[in-house]
Design goal:
Length: about 300
Amino acid sequence: MNDRGERIASPRTILYVALVAFVLAWILGPPALRSLVPVWLVFLLALGLELAFFAGAFRSRPAPQPDRGPQPGDRERFGYPPVVADDVFEPEADADLRWPPPRRRIRTLLAGLATIATLAGLAWVAESRTGWDGLDRESQVAAMERFSEEASVVAEKPVSVRCDVSGDFVGVVQHADGAAAVGGDTAYLTPGICHVLHRLAFEGEVAASRTGRALAVLAHEAWHMRGVRDEGETECYALQSGVALGRRLGLSEGRARQLMRQQLTENALRAGASFEYRVPPECRDGGRLDLAPGDSRFP
Ligand SMILES: [Zn+2]
């Protein structure tokens, strides 16, 4: 039966034990975990499950059970003996035991939401201490100088790269991860992209496809500053320049090519709003946009 003693390991309890364990591992564990799993997605999932439990408590409330005892008509006809108190079937009492009253359900929901909020707060503090914002000003300046040098190589002129948090740049081509004016001399990258680049350039850490993405974004903005406007063409050139850029920032040749090919593959899967960023068909080995037509490797 479904008495309280057995509810200790309810799905909801398991959810919260797993969530606490995951967040602790995410905060204290290896950096690779942070790179691989977006923690906000995990909180969103937990929130969805909590709301599902809450809604489910209403939806799956069992229908009142029919009285299995003798019906009044039968009692009259057959003279059924009076029942002892212990045998009385009380569907209402049973339902209340299984399905807590609304006030308790809401209390449970609020406790769940508070737990999720607390864990999200912890993750946010950990992220701000260890992300781009967690670097001291000197390291940030050194990193931005390095990114500027590398972008200047791609742009073939002196340009500067800023890691900015304000996110409001009027009159420039703005993407989710970076922004630069076509033909301009300043590019802005998000702190997330800067942090991944910093880890590569200064700590030799590779965060799988996020490192590839960050290299592509830096190269993409550099190509805009070099004067290319079309998004698909810009991205095509960026993925090719990203190989040498990755090598200069510490990757092996093979790894750099693998990351840029992965970006090219992911680019082909783009659709909808990001369609304009898809590379054109001419972005291939020997195609019009191939920067090294004599080289059979691409990118
Ligand atoms: Zn662009």
